[in-house]
Amino acid sequence: MFLDFNSEKPIYLQLAEAIEDSILQDIFKEETQIPSTTEMSVSLKINPATAGKGMNLLVDEGVIYKRRGVGMFVSRGAKKMIIRKRKKDFYDTYILALLDEASKLDISKEEVITMIERGKKE
Amino acid sequence: MSTITIEELTMDYEKNRALVHITLTIEPNKIYGLLGRNGAGKTTLLNLLTNRIFPTSGEIKIDGKNVIENEQALSQIYYMMEANYFPESLKVKDVFRWTKEFYPLFDTAYANELANKFNLNIQKKIKSLSTGYHSIFKAILALASNAKILIFDEPVLGLDAYHRDLFYKELIVVYSENPKTIIISTHLIEEIADVLEEVIVIHEGRIIANHSVEELLASAYQVSGEAEKVDQYMIGKQAAGQKMMGKYKMVTVLKKISKENEEVASELGLSFSKPELQELFIHMTNGQEV
To answer: Where does B4-215 sit in CATH, by number?
Structure first.
């Protein structure tokens, strides 16, 4: 799991996203235990309060849950939940940015579509 | 709980004033970074906190009790000093034993485990330790002390990258297992920025910032782009520092980003970014105050 410390994004958000990525890639499977806040903060060398903030965000969203005295687990249905949330963000983060950059470069809508089709094939 | 309160602390040496009216609260169970340039007054502050020296005026209290000659308050603190203070003829393992006498909670097993991890031979005499291993030896004493308040003055002095990494990790382990107040004075800001929760910046004997890392980073921004446009944007604003590369210019402003400013900058085709802690520190201690 890697964090980009030069990124504009706060570390706790990056950590939450990195955990989500791992769930999407089946590195952390549903109903299995994930590393503790301490393990995360030690291996990433970040303040435990920061790591806790990232984990709590996912607990609040229902992506992971705490088993008392045992640790953190990936919720059943977590993958679906993440995909649903990320699809919503996809339009704002990627499509709008793509169209914005395309207009700066004077790339037409048709050219963008052609490029997408080319990308799909490759 | 061990709250440290510092009130109106002033320290005069014969010819110069090291600390000027410092008022500060250090909350329990947080990791603090004490940052300042050489001669800013960091070590003086730490020496006062631990009753190594006496203030000219002002007070330091732990949980409401003055630290001066207060054995009980002081026994809660373990202070890793930058200076060397152990008899040179003693062996590392002897110092472990003596430390246990003064700090009954000292965890000898953990100290030995750390010595192993850092490859420190405990049969060695203090005087035969290299600069790096001297730091390691002192850091191990602090990490294993089990004190409620750990103070580190330049803990990674002379340590190679591997050992610095190991130190930061062990520090987080110790902190996570047993919450405690940790104060670290260091010049290697970039490495430790993400480990810290709070930052105290001391400059020429005065506290110029005392915030959470998050708040501090949010209190400044950088704006960059074509030099002329940046200058235009900066009219009526104060720059804390700037970088030029040909026609490109980046300026650091010690103010929060506002919606209006963001709009003005975007109209000019400029981009905003967040400074890193180390860069912000350089600008802050370059004569400018926040």
So the answer is: 3.40.50.300
